[in-house]
Amino acid sequence: MKRLNRDSIIAIALLVFCGVFFWASFDIRTPNYGVLKPSAWPRVIIGIMSFLSLIYLIQSLKGNPNIATAGKSDREPGFRGWVDYWRNPLWCFALFFVYLALLPILGMLIDGILFVYVLMGVLGGWDGKKPLTHAYIAVLTIGFMWSLFTFGLGVMLPSGIFMDPI
Amino acid sequence: MVVDNILAAIDVLANGHALLLMAVGVAAGLIAGAIPGFTIAMAVVLTLPFTFGMSAHLGLATMISVLVGGLSGGLMAGILTGIPGTPSSVATTFDGFPMARNGEPGLALGIGVWSSFCGGIISAVLLMTMAPQLAKIGLEFNPWGYFMLVMFALTITASLAGKNMIKGLIAGALGLLLRTVGEDEAAGMARFDFGSDALLGGFDFIAVLIGLFAFSQLLNDVRDPEKAKKSLTQRSSIQIKIEHRRAIAEILKRWTIVVRSSLIGVFTGILPGAGGSIANILAYDQTKKASKYPEKFGTGIADGIIAPESSNNAVEGGALIILMALGIPGDVTAAIMLGALLMNDVVPSPSFISDEPVLAYSIFISFFIATFMMLALQSVMLRIFVRVTKIPMYVLASIILGFCGIGVFALHNVGFDLWTLLWFGILGFTMRHFGFPLVPMILGVVLGNIAELNLARALAITPDLTPFFTRPWSLFFMIITIFSALFPMFQGHRIKEKAWTLFYLPTACFAVSLPLFMMGGVTRPALAAFLFCFGTYLLWQRKQNGWRYKA
Predict the structure, then answer these.
(1) Model pTM?
(2) How many other CB atoms sit within 10 Å of the CB of residue B119?
(3) Residues A84 and A132 in one domain
């Protein structure tokens, strides 16, 4: 058996996840009607998933080549290398998180335009005429979508505190 | 009756508004399918929010148009740039790109377009004729049979998802488990809400789909900072005229390839989890094997374009057959269609075609109309394709992420759905990175409550578990579930000529014949007898060979 590798860590994380859900399944109330308890089906799935995760763990510890995850990447070692390699997806996650957090304040239109504008800048750079180009792309595309949903489809999108009177 | 339904469906779709929406859908699909990195599933799932204000007929017709356009769009990128627009057009590049480089891009595109058209029409005809017949069989399923059918769909999807079946099965189980979050449908009890009111309603299915498929795919597309800044092509214009007449003549000369490849496509589509990415390679390979000049494949011959393009367009007809007849999605796009139906309070099941005949036939008819529109719009979209492919990927990804936000919120006007989108986007991206297939997980999410409801119904009839083994359809699906679960191991061991693999196929034949005998009637016992004889013949043949595959 080899020492812990990435697959074994994922398998252990899956087992912990199953454990948490199994523990949470005891909070499910059982009514005095029906044959199948509301907790029965989730427990069956948790049982199957735990069993599969256990097989996955054993296979990963045995070094089964069939289960090896994505091949070698070209990233530099260490935390800095990891951040550099995943920079763009991390930016997307972080900016989307900020976008959602600011949505009740800025509203869908302003927040959406800012999100697309900043994301384009972060992913594509701020050099030359890019800030200007990105600005009109963000305003035109999100403005069009917002208008389509608001006026065309009659959807009440969040207006935020600035556009509330509208 | 059938004619009435067809006429009613035509009445719903034959108006300017519906046709315009379908034309826009086909055009959008052609462009989305042509951009490498954008999948057809992503295009279809992003169409969903736009359809929420439409009637079910119009919404589904629009989505089918995007789907048909997407299936054909992949060939433009594949033939002109050598980079397949979608995984379902990988094999098209083998001969399409060389033919274009040999100075005949117009002919290559023409053959691709007309092959796609033929594949689409053949599969639409089969969809219209087979789905109602299969639905009649589906009405025989009882809760035990239906529950086992869902288990079979999940197992075969996991086994076809890649070389690691364990990861596929874990992904499927994870999908089933996440579907249980929120109030359970049978008793109305809260499950896994962890004290949060937002979780009490469960995760919205469409937000989960967009997060898992579109959001995570976009992040994958911009992962490499240098590639994200580059555009697919630097060409500013394109001067290619699609050679329709020559293409039709070439295809008519090879009509057997069209029919065979389309049938491969439909059959692959019927199998849950096996989509266009498998069908196009399979059809190319079969055509090469059957050809009198296999050495010419890869040099730019018409056969090598006809086979993959007619098969990948036929796949969706197969996937829709299973969705409409049994309520089981054959692939991710069919799962999204199922989501669209659920959004309109239509639950696909074996009684779907008889309960909602106009809606069902409008799906059939829109498949036909979209296929014709694809043919008409391909030349126009070729010019737009060149312009779109000049836009760097990071711009497209940023805009689409912005669209995702607006679209997902618009579905139910619930802010929690946007958080669902983000968390499932992260989950999908992580799963992709660690080699977990997403298709079984999506099917798990889609089919989770169907499985639970049927299990509850079965246990409400009798708490005894023996009907799972004694009811013919339940036993049938249980047997094929077991054999499909063993299939990847069989494939691996067969190459090594392990002894047990000699008995896999004969045993499967014997086992499947048992429930077929139990079903009664004439056809099914006759089929069972045939399978039994075939299994016996295989055993006899292997004994003659000294218990080897070949003497």
Answers:
(1) 0.85
(2) 35
(3) yes
